[in-house]
Amino acid sequence: MPESNLGKGSLLTGISVFIVSMALVAGAAAQPSTAPPDLSSNESTWRHFGAELTAVTGFPGPGPVRDDPAHRYVTNTDGGQASYHIADLSDPNLTQWAKDIMKKDNDEVLAGKIAYAPHQSCLPAGVPDFDFVRGARPIYFIQTPREVLMIWEGDHQFRHIYLNVPHSKNPKPSWFGDSVGHYEGNTLVIDTIGQNTRTFVDEYRTPHSDKLHVQERWTLSDDGKTLSITVLVDDPAAFKQPWSGTTKFRREQKPMTEIACAENNEHFDFHIPVAGKADF
């Protein structure tokens, strides 16, 4: 299907309505809620327990990238040798630019190459992949009136979300980009731009450009035990239309464990930074 046929008419209208209904910041400052949700990690943490990202009910556009049916993703808990994510490149929402890059990577992985991901080399995972890094390591939140700090226990990667302010003017590309947010009732809303291109969008190693725009809604359940996240991802270089996905986290009582990455590597060695000379 020609790319020009995607993104016309009712689909774009529906996505626009959905985006408006999500009430995401789009770079503008918002008024703070009088009672923000308590996401703080006072001896507790948030652990991802959803499987893959799933499509969002009511969203008129595409969902997230999925597994190639011929190469189903297998985890260590499935009773076999863990595999790597292999994307379904028949996904009509992927641009040819993205497909070409992903096909080369998929072919190399299927031929025996280790599937590289930045966080496996002690590098930042980027957004939104930071939210869905697989494994047993949870995310901790620190909340202040001016910002929210999100910390991934794996090697203490962290994100700063600055509250009730607009985006920086012409932000310099960085690993986690420029994130601003505000509260809407029991939801933390985050808008991120300005990421560099050294990360992937997801665990399928989907590439992105410096135009990547990610919007997140972290919603706390009424009992305070579950945190649902919905993401809206837009990058015209990689995707023909914005796509949306959702998953969940659960609260657990667990103090943060100190995990060193480069100094105490428990991962595969993917060009982990090494000092040019000894410290002593």
Describe the structure.
The structure is a single chain. The protein contains two helices and nine strands, in the order αβαββββββββ. The protein is of the alpha+beta class. It has a domain of 195 residues: Lipocalin, CATH 2.40.128.20. It has a nine-stranded mixed sheet with strand order 1-9-8-7-6-5-4-3-2, with no helix packed on it. The radius of gyration is 19 Å and the shape is globular. The N terminus is likely disordered.
The separation of the N and C termini measures: 61 Å
Mean pLDDT across the residues is 81
Q: What sort of overall outline do the alpha carbons produce when their principal axes are compared?
A: globular
Unreliable spans are: 1-8, 23-33
Structural class by SSE content: alpha+beta
Total count of strands: 9
Q: What is the CATH topology classification name of the domain at 3-61 and 118-253?
A: Lipocalin
Order of helices and strands: HEHEEEEEEEE
* Distinct helical segment count: 2
By CATH, the superfamily of the domain at 3-61 and 118-253 comes out as: Calycin beta-barrel core domain
Strand content: 15-25%
CATH class of the domain at 3-61 and 118-253: Mainly Beta
Output the radius of gyration.
19 Å
